[in-house]
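Q: My labmate handed me this sequence with no annotations at all. I'd like to see what the chain might look like in three dimensions before we decide whether it's worth expressing. Could you predict it?
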Amino acid sequence: MKAAVLEAPRRVALHGCEPPEPAPGEVRVELEGAGICASELPVWEGREWFDYPRAPGTPGHEGWGRIEALGAGVNGLTAGERVALISEHAHAEYDLAPAAAVVPLPAAIEGPFPGEPLACAVNAMRRAGVRRGDRVAILGAGFQALLLAQLCAPLVAELAVISRRPTALEYAAAAGADTLWRWGDPEIERAEPFDVVIEATGYGEPLEVAGRLTRIRGRLVIVGFHQDGRRNIDLQLWNWRGLDVINAHERDPAVYAEGLRLAVEAVLEGRLRPGPLLTHEFELEELGEAYATAARGPDGFVKAIWRRG
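A: Here is what I predict for the chain of 309 residues:
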């Protein structure tokens, strides 16, 4: 099979290798494609704590495709079934996953389905505890933030989205946001604090602003993936306001899988609409270009995927 290998920072090449054999309880999936996650960019760019070359297919974890082989003891799944999976080597033609991390896709779902970030959005929404009638603000308008905006909009009394990019705010408006602010707009600091504030950028300054936007006894939900060092936080403010600070990142495989199953339901019901947000498509051979595009974030960009032709 072909698998993408990060040979060094910013250098991706296709390697030939044997398809992995499913162990008992595992499933081998012939991948149709995978999403490019913002959390993958640091390993592509290079950090001192990463070693190279990386294992074939890593750090891909947003794959979908068809079951090609079943390990011993796997029940409830069949060869040829179209599925989404939560795995670790999805930038390749085949990948393995525990059967519990493989979720069937109904025939009504025909297009690309990078399931893992959809599961993250559903799980973050559950952790956030958004209630009907809440006022909610989301800092950021990337893929994860826009999915959360889609889930929040039908429930809340007001949904505000803050982003640096005008085109991202257009997507937020399409998701149902009531209030759209460009980063730095003085109205942000003058706004009445919100019941729930979701920080979805992964950067330090928006996290500070998120605290100031959260009302007394409100919920500050950290969805952004903070991976570039320590943060200086005004804990006095957080203490004084009695904030519930929620880390919305899951690490329990069973919770991940349940989120994926619920995400499939949400897509079928129209509550999640990922298709219009998959703005840039590449071949597996173009993974390096896909990373470069995701890092650059050109006008109109939300999410890149690679997809087999």
